[in-house]
Amino acid sequence: MNPALQGLITIIIGVGGCVGYFYGANLFLDKVLFKAEGPNAGRNINRANQIRPWLFLMPALLALGLYLAYPVFATLRLSFLERLPGNEYAFVGFDNYTQMFAEPKFMEALRNNVLWLVVVPAAATGFGLLAAQLTDRLSWGNIAKSIVFMPMAISFVGAAVIFKLIYEARPEDVAQIGILNHLYLTFGGDAPVQWLQVPFWNNFFLMAVLIWIQTGFAMVILSAALRGIPEETVEAAIIDGANPFQIFFKIKIPQIMSTIVVVWTTITIATLKVFDIVFAMTNGQWETQVLANYMYDKLFRANDWGMGSASAMIIMLMVTPILVWNVHNARKEMK
Amino acid sequence: MDAMAGRKPAVVWALNISVVALVALWLFPTLGLFISSFRTGDQITASGWWSAMFPAEQTLQIRAADPDDNRVDLGNGRFMVEGNIFDGEAFEGELNAWGTSSRRLGEFEPGATADLGDGETLTLQVDGSYVWEGDDDQISGRAQRVFLDVVSPPDFTLQNYNFVLFDEANSQGMAKAFFNTLTVVIPATIIPILIAAFAAYALAWMDFPGRAILIAIIVGLLVVPLQLALIPLLSLHNAIGIGKGYLGVWLAHTGFGLPLAIYLLRNYMVGLPRDIIENAKVDGATDFQIFTKIILPLSFPALASFAIFQFLWTWNDLLVALVFLIDASGETTVMTKQIVELLGTRGGDWEILATSAFVSIAVPLAVFFAMQKYLVRGLLAGSVK
Fold first, then answer.
1. Does A123 reach chain B within 8 Å, measured CB to CB?
2. Which position among A50, A250, A318, B188 has the lowest Cβ density within 10 Å, counted as fewest Cβ atoms?
């Protein structure tokens, strides 16, 4: 069947099914199960209203449970198993983990991921804050913001192509078409450099892609937070003779600190999961491996589900503090 | 802040210049790709994209016509070859200067006559026509080489797009991948919205035990990396017979998108005025009616925000498609996967790469600029607590 037609049919079945479910289940509850008439009308209405929320929630809970909650436990289980020929599994305890930690490629991925976690959120938040502050009172600030925000719409793969063109190196005797090498040679470099093949520093050239994408996100949120600062606090500081830097660092930053933390953690999570950029640009060669790509290698190239799941659990472990903190905050807020 | 303190012109200048620099830094990478997609492969390798907007100076090395076939006998043992140096060259532009030796480029003005020694001469006009004259020995064998300093105007072409999108013979074209991506994206955007809207209403406006815990769980699920889901769900899909295909990828995207959808929509719905809902209840409206007649229309901005997020995320996704959709036949490949393939097989063909990449990012960019307002609103609702 033509996929476009199949897609159309799916939309109709999917959407129709959802609407049908919600409408039908609701009708069934009111008209069949607990009729709002007869001697028990009052009790029936109450009962129906107790069940209705679960009716509305059911599809979402099923999907969440199956696609997000169940995999956490299934992956945890798989990480303690070894796949044997013939679709059988053997329990191997922490073997997958110890084997993984003994692998230089894994330690490299772990080291690089930590590097990414230190650099990317800091740089993206910093640039975002700078962009938000600079464009705040500018007449063409909205256009500037739009452009800084634009990479948000670009896929990691698209961005990988964009930055590969920037880092492109051509032989010394022909024209350079990568702007980085062009600038490097113009400002006194000796020979064109394959930027993505310089160990250690190439990590930063990959990080630049994510920073370029995430800065707009940070800018939009921080810009709204800056707008939300009460004018009086800034005015009072000006009257007291504070200079613009003091106003920014001593008056504004402390007031938007909670937003900065939210932005920072959101970018941290995106950074932890980074896969496409490394997959498309270096595929972990030249010491640029990261956890998500290492995991993909183990799962789908080496077909080692045990170690692949173990490395996925390491990513989960690194996310957990943020998860706990977020849940804690959400609960505090609801009280 | 400075506005109130009275701005100094120098400060305003510094501010504007630094914002211009920042914007340039963020715009130029994409611009480079965009411009490259309108240049031929030869142009891309000949000069950087930043010089494409300006007339390009280059030195061409061309030989005069073959003397043994073309020479004209002038008598007295003199021979001549006449012709246009640009014949057979796809060239548009202007001749600035020329020379007859690679060590003395640009020695002569157009229209000048070069003395090649022993009575041999070459005259070259600005339009490329030349007269090459000499004796029998000189006007024979290999033709005279001419080095031309030319300036060609900026030159852009649509042939890359034609090749990438419409060329039937191009097995690595983007047309099929484009439609496959579309097929993934549309159901994967609509279905989670519907499911999430009902759930969000229940979590926002219905009272039941366990509501607070459910909300906390959803906040927690927001950050669960989808990497964990790959193997368990692929095994599950294989076990129940879905295997790799569109159905699997639609379900996966629905599941992965739900936490954000529910979270965003609930946050928005909770903020709707309580009076409207209570008045409707007093008037005898059921929850179902309140939801479809009041809440849904009022929540349009939040629905739009999430729709854009989910659209961008599914359109740009690589990992979920790799794992749940693309099988060995490659029939269901999506654009991101196609570009990664191209990076591997045609890493140096920048005209193909740039064009393919731009085809895939054009749609999200259009959506982005058209619906930026909703995107910003959604971000603010989803992040700032």
1. no
2. A250
Does one domain contain both B296 and B267?
yes
Partners of residue A234 in chain B, C-beta under 8 Å: 1, 4
Q: Do A299 and B231 lie within an 8 Å CB cutoff?
A: yes
B124: enclosing H helix or E strand? strand B120-124
CB-based contact, A323 to chain B, within 8 Å: yes
Residues of A in contact with B18 (CB under 8 A): 134
What DSSP string runs through A171-228?
A: -TTS---SHHHHHHHHTT-SS---GGGSTTHHHHHHHHHHHHHHHHHHHHHHHHHHHT
Q: Which of A143, A146, A154, A329 to mutate to test the interface with B (most CBs of B within 10 A)?
A: A154
| Per-residue model confidence as pLDDT tens digits over A218-272 | 998 898 888 888 888 888 888 888 888 888 888 888 988 888 988 898 899 888 8
Asked if B369 and B337 sit in the same domain, the reply is: yes
Please tell me which of the candidates B187, B258, B336 has its beta carbon nearest to residue A14: B187
A221–B contact, CB cutoff 8 A: yes
Do B73 and B218 fall into the same domain?
A: no
CB B340 within 8 A of CB A157: yes
| ipTM score of complex | 0.86
- Residue B25: name the closest of A255, A162, A264, A74 by CA: A162
Q: Which residue of A has its CA nearest to B381?
A: A221
| B139: confidence class by pLDDT, cuts 50, 70, 90 | confident
pLDDT tens digits, A11-37 = 788 778 888 888 888 888 877 777 766
Q: Under DSSP, is residue A89 helix (H, G, I), strand (E, B) or coil?
A: strand
Are residues B321 and B202 located together in one domain of the fold? yes
For residue B316, the distance in angstroms to the closest alpha carbon of chain A comes to 5
- From chain B, the residues in CB contact with A18 under 8 A are 191, 194-195
**Chain A positions in Cβ-Cβ contact with residue B14 (cut-off 8 Å):** none
Is residue B318 situated within a structural domain? yes
Domain assignment present for B141: yes
Query: Closest residue of A to B214, CA-based?
Result: A61
Whether residue B198 is found in the same domain as residue B183: yes
CA atoms in the 13 A half-sphere facing the CB of B265: 33
Final residue before a domain boundary, out of B152, B182, B212 = B152
Give CA–CA dist B334/B329, Å, rounded.
13
- Residue B241: domain span: 162-383
The model carries a pTM of 0.83
| Packing angle, helices B372-383 and B246-270, rounded to 10 | 70
Question: In this structure, are B62 and B43 located in the same domain?
Answer: no
Listed in sequence order, the residues at least 6 apart from B243 whose beta carbon sits closer than 8 Å to its beta carbon are B237, B327
- The per-residue pLDDT for range B172-226, each reduced to its tens digit, is 778 888 888 888 888 889 889 988 998 998 888 888 888 888 888 888 888 888 8
Instruction: pLDDT band for A121, please (50, 70, 90 cuts).
Output: very high
Residue B132 lies in a domain: yes
